Amino acid sequence: MRTLLQLIAVFAVALLLGISSARYMIEHGSPLTTKRVGPWASWVSEGNPNSDPYTKAHLARSGRLPLTSTTARYFTANTDSAGDDLTSACEYLIEGPALNARWWSLAVYDEHGSLIENPSQRFSFNSEEAIRRADGTYRINLASNARPENWLPSGTGPERKLVLMLRIYSPRETDSSGIGQIADDRLPKIERKACN
Amino acid sequence: MQLRVPLLYILLCLVLAGLIHIAAVLALPGLAPKNGWARLVPLGPTNTMIQMTPLTPGQEVMPMMAADVRYAFCRFDLAQGPVRLKGSVPNDLWMIAFYTPEGDNFYTVPGADMKSAQLDLVIATADQTVAEAGVDAPEEADELFVIKSPVQEGLAVIRAPLSGPSRTARAEAALKATVCSPLKK
Fold it and tell me: What is the number of domains present in chain B?
């Protein structure tokens, strides 16, 4: 009887460990599947027919249809550069240098990946429309209320968590397998300013 | 001996956890009912170009879609023969991407790589030949750009990134004029 109970306990712990570790590696990623630079994470072989089972599981769960990494790279962030969760209760300055690609776009979503309603119908800034400085750098103000320069609204109403996505189409630098490369220092910094 | 029993249990637990971990990861794609394919299927019939309306917050078909990209897609079914995509590409930012139902992006044609502003592609399975499918002149068959699909049913998704508000109407009109239809008349 005692042995049976012990075996049941062993099985329960194994189930918990197995499922939670799988869940973590599918949702959060691991060095095997994702590249992390500061707050930014990118699934390196997302959409690739030869991708590993973790990436395939992540893709199926996400409900998205991304372009494969030889055509485009997607970077997401749900924290600022200091590691604190992005929230509509705070205001952020997103600042980055020019990206070497055909087209890029930085968009904000709620934690479910939905666009955030706002009066100016502004959901993203792309390489064609973001106001840039003479040296090619850009500054985007992520805030609930109107801000000068590039204002990316994080919506009013109850506080919500935010997710940023930087999509980069046709990066001009690639590695030997054709995967678009974005140098670490090219990804924008996300700096928290005032909070309500 | 007193010490070995817990050790045995720990080992058993780790081996079991590993097996459960692997089984969960491999089973998940089949268990995720709302992958991209499942979200697009209800929007319309096969072998028809379906233009997606500009995004409205809360009404998006898939999570994290780009508000500054216009999307159109064709769910192709090659059971009755190859399928042709025809239209014009007003802007070399366009991306025509092909997917399996699992979301594998098996082929992409960047607009910048096209020889002309005309989009004319044929999707066929490995054992289908375009000449047999009823193209009148063999010369025409030679000029067609054929994409070999590893699946009988899949998706062709056109992305038209917007390069400014003034060009939005033009991109939308060009997407609307894009045709997806069986090659055989």
Answer: 2
CB contact under 8 A, B159 and A65: no
CB–CB of B155/B76 below 8 Å?
yes
Q: Is the pTM of this model over 0.80?
A: yes
Contacts of B102 (CB under 8 A, 6+ apart): A56, A59, A60, B29, B35, B37
| pLDDT tops 70 at residue B139 | no
Q: Tokens at residue B182, please? A: 């069986």
Q: What is the CA radius of gyration of chain B?
A: 22
User: ipTM value of the model?
Assistant: 0.90
The two structure tokens encoding residue A169: 């189409």
Query: Rg for chain A (alpha carbons), in Å?
Result: 20
Spatial separation of the C-alpha atoms in residues B102 and B80, rounded to whole Å: 22
For the domain that residue B96 is a member of, what is the CATH number? 2.60.40
CA dihedral B11, B14, B20, B22 (to 10 degrees): -110
Nearest to B66 among A57, A124, A170 (CB): A124
> Do the Cβ atoms of B108 and A57 come within 8 Å?
no
How many domains, chain A? 2
| Phi, psi for residue B145 in degrees, rounded to 5 | -90, 115
Distance CA B64, CA B30 (A): 22
Average pLDDT in chain B: 87
* Residue range(s) defining the domain that contains residue B45: 36-182
- The pLDDT value recorded for residue A80 is 96
Tell whether B24 lies on the interface with A, counting CB pairs under 8 A: yes
- Give the one of A22, A56, A165 whose C-beta lies nearest to B21's C-beta: A22
A17 and A91 in a single domain? The answer is no
